[in-house]
Each structure stands twice: as C-alpha cells, then as structure tokens.
Specification:
The structure is a single chain. The chain is mainly beta and 448 residues long. It contains 7 helices and 27 strands. It has 2 domains: 33-190, Jelly Rolls, CATH 2.60.120; 201-440. The strands form 5 sheets. Strands 1, 2, 3, 7, 10, 13, 14, 15, 16, 17, 21, 24 and 27 form a 13-stranded mixed β-sheet that branches. The protein has a 4-stranded antiparallel β-sheet with strand order 6-11-8-9. A 4-stranded antiparallel β-sheet has the order 20-25-22-23. A hairpin with a 2-residue loop joins strand 22 (334-338) and strand 23. The protein starts with a helix and ends in an 8-residue tail after the last helix.
Length: 448
C-alpha cells in the first residue's frame, strides 16, 4: 500500500528543489573569476566565504623581483583579514597579466593604506593602468580614506577585454619623494553586457543619445539599495557587486518614507530583462515622498553624490511598484531631474512595467563640465501635476552611477571632498554637504 504522507512529502520536496533551481538559475555564472589576495601565505577566505589565492608564485605575475610582500602593522576592527591584511608593494613599475576570455569584466582593486614596515602610508602615491585605460593617477589611498572617513577602500571598473589578456600596471608617482605603489587584493569577474551593447541612453539636457560600446570603460562610483539594507557580494546575482543603503546620500530633512511591503512578496522579472540585472532585494524596498500631497508638492526627494568633473556619468535608476495600492497607469507619475535638468518629465513605473511587482530600470547619461575639480551630482524626484495622477508622489528602488572614460581612456579623477561627521550616529539624520547647503537643509523647495 502506498504511503500517502511519504508521497506528498516527496512531491513537496521535489517542488522545493525545483524552486531552488529556478532561483539559482537566475544568477549569472561568470566564465572568469579571479580572487587574488596579494602577499598572502596561501589560500584564504573572506567574510563571504569566497576563496582567495595568493599572488606569491602566481602565474599572473611574470616576475616578483621588483616587489615585496608585507603584513599590515595594525588591523582595525572594521578590517577583514582577507584581502586587506597583506599587500604587495612596488617601488617601481609592476604588471599583473590576467589571461581571460573575451567580454566584459569587473576589475576590483582593494586598498588598505596601513603603515607597512619601513614605509609611510602618506607616500603611497601611484598610478594604475588596465590595458589602454588609466584608472588612477597620482592616487593616494591614504588621503582618499581620510577624506571619506573610511578604513579601507575598494574600487570597481567594468572593462571590455578583447585580446584575451588584461594587463594591470602599478607605477609609483615620480613627483612624490619615496613613493611606492601597493595593492591588497585584485578581483576579476566576468559580467554580462548589461550596461552597454544595444542599449542607448538619453544624454540629459539634449535631444541626443549616448552609446556605450566595447570601447567604453566604466567606474562604479555609487551603487545604492534605496531604503533597504546593504547587500553583500554573495547577496548579488552572481557578479559579486556590493550594494549599500542610501541614507547618507539623501539631502536635507525631507527623507521621504520607506515603502513597506510583505517580505514574501513575489517579484516577477519581465521578458527581455535578465534576472541578474539587480538582486530581488533591491526591488523589494523603495523610498517614496509620503502620504501627504500638499507636503510632497513643496519639495523634491533628493540625493547628492560627490563626483569628478570633466566626465560623463551613466545614471541607472531601478524601479518597481511594490505598494499594493498602486496597480494602474497614472496613479503615481513623477518628474526626474539630474543635475537640475529634466531627465524624465512623466515617469510612470506601472506604464513602463505594465503591472505592479515587475522591475524596470532606466538609463540616463549626464555630462559634468570642468568648472571645478569636483562637484555634487544631484538626483531629484518631484510629483508630476500636468498628468493629474491619483497621487502626487514619487518612488525609487535603487541607483547605480558609473563614471565613463574620457578621451584617451582616462578614468582617473581627483581626491574626494572631505565628509563631515555627525555628532550623533543616526542613519535617519543626514548632514548637509557644506555650509551653503546647511542654510538650505530645511524643506528643499522645488527650485529647478
């Protein structure tokens, strides 16, 4: 006689296995994954459980004669041992060569500018090139983390590799006495062509489009899970991107509200949009302006980002209507402004996605002229009144901002502006970026 309970248990387990397979199948599987813990004594694991190999005796370095390896003298509480507590240090030019399949690659560089034996962290000034692109020039990891109030820094690039080999070269600065270059970790991960290929982006403030092709290199400068938690490398969709919260980038006191929803909500990716464009957790959280239309009409929901000038930037905005009351066209329509220019006059997420709980993303390119070395890139959302929507409100789920290489393949920029520290550590409070903004930090009026 058949055991009915056992039959149903097997059937349920089969469905569960199938569901897990579907979830895992949504992740991108990279053809190249290289995790190099520079100066390490053998294989190590990072906090995400990923295995890193040492570059000592590695096939990626043709010679180690003009470099040394060293342990950092101090491990701060925020520092993970892998890949930050060992380094390879270069008193002269040094090149790693990575044999790769052709296609787009994420190149991530990890720096912990500690004092290494007989070396001063302040003289670690150098340049980095990858293939034909200048990634960093006269770069000081020490000054960078000091201004940002960080203990370490990682920088991510997207580069198309055609020849099958990517050379990454470190060169100490000639104009800095006793200069040296160093690196703690190098990561190379294949990724699909989700930021370029056939997609063209609108060049904000013009009627022209901007093409991102295989000759374009990108530097990721910001990647935010709006109103949500940080997402670790393992929480991404197979490309090991890291997403952070948006609280410290919101302008002024008008921070809007987090859109609350059932944590078990089912997000359905639309046809033609790969599931790995962004993690589902990005689309399960959002920030809106709030329930009061009179208040919403009087301010912009705004974020600001310190960036280099003289470059174009790809701004990718992620949307998903997760409010159960928003299910039809023209219920929530809003304007999108980037750097005080209209990027989208009539954003309607339901109209774009055709229904709720379906993700969509929009790409915009903005150019920042070289008026000063750095300035803030502004993103503002405001209710559209012309369409007479049901709600005067706006919504945003995620943001990615990429610097685009300038003529000659340059991505190198300047030192970031110092971050002002809060007297009280409170994620709901956001400091103005400078004294002028402090005067404006009440409720920002709509002044486009």
């Amino acid at each position: 006689m058949r055991n009915t309970n056992m039959y149903y248990l097997v059937e349920q387990l089969s469905c569960f296995v199938l569901l897990v397979h579907v979830v895992l199948a949504a992740n991108y599987v990279p053809t190249d994954v290289i995790l190099l813990n520079c100066g390490a004594n053998g294989e190590t694991s990072d906090p995400d459980g990923r295995k890193w190999s040492t570059d000592i005796g590695s096939k990626f370095a043709s010679s180690e004669t003009n470099s040394i390896v060293s342990d950092a003298t101090i491990q701060k509480p925020s520092i993970s041992e892998t890949p930050y507590m060992t380094a390879r240090i270069f008193p002269s030019e040094f090149t790693y060569s990575f044999p790769l399949t052709s296609g787009r690659k994420f190149l991530r560089l990890y720096f912990y500018p500690a004092d290494y034996p007989n070396l001063n962290a302040t003289t670690g000034v150098f340049s980095v090139k990858a293939g034909q692109y200048t990634l960093l020039k006269n770069f000081s990891a020490y000054d960078t983390i000091t201004n940002l109030n960080y203990d370490f820094i990682s920088i991510e690039y997207s580069i198309y590799v055609e020849s099958g080999t990517l050379n990454v070269t470190f060169t100490p600065a000639r104009d800095t006495p006793n200069s040296y270059a160093f690196i703690n970790g190098i990561e190379v991960v294949s990724h699909p062509d989700i930021y370029s290929s056939v997609r063209t982006s609108m060049l904000v403030g013009t009627s022209r489009t901007f093409d991102i092709d295989n000759s374009t290199a990108l530097e990721n400068v910001y990647r935010l899970n709006v109103a949500g938690h940080a997402i670790s490398a393992n929480g991404d969709t197979g490309m090991f991107r890291k997403w952070v919260g948006d609280a410290s980038y919101i302008f002024g006191a008008a921070v809007g509200v987090a859109v609350t929803t059932d944590p078990n909500i089912m997000i359905s990716y639309p046809p033609g949009m790969p599931d790995y464009v962004a993690p589902v957790d990005v689309y399960k959280t959002a920030r809106s302006m709030g329930p009061t239309p009179e208040i919403n009409l009087g301010f912009n929901l705004s974020w600001y980002f310190d960036v280099d000038t003289g470059f174009s930037y790809l701004v990718r905005l992620h949307f998903c209507e997760i409010d159960p009351d928003i299910t039809r066209h023209n219920q929530r329509v809003f304007e999108i402004f980037i750097n005080n220019q209209t990027a989208q006059p009539d954003a309607d997420v339901i109209a774009w996605a055709t229904k709720s709980k379906v993700p969509v993303y929009k790409d915009y390119v903005v150019f920042l002229p070289s008026k000063s070395p750095r300035q803030d890139l502004w993103l503002k959302l405001h209710p559209n009144t012309f369409m007479k929507p049901h709600r005067y409100d706006a919504i945003l789920n995620g943001v990615e901002i990429f610097k685009i290489n300038s003529t000659g393949g340059n991505l190198a920029g300047t030192l970031p502006n110092p971050i002002q520290k809060q007297d009280i550590i409170d994620p709901s409070r956001v400091l103005p970026h400078n004294s002028d903004k402090r005067k404006e930090a009440k409720l920002e009026r709509r002044d486009i």
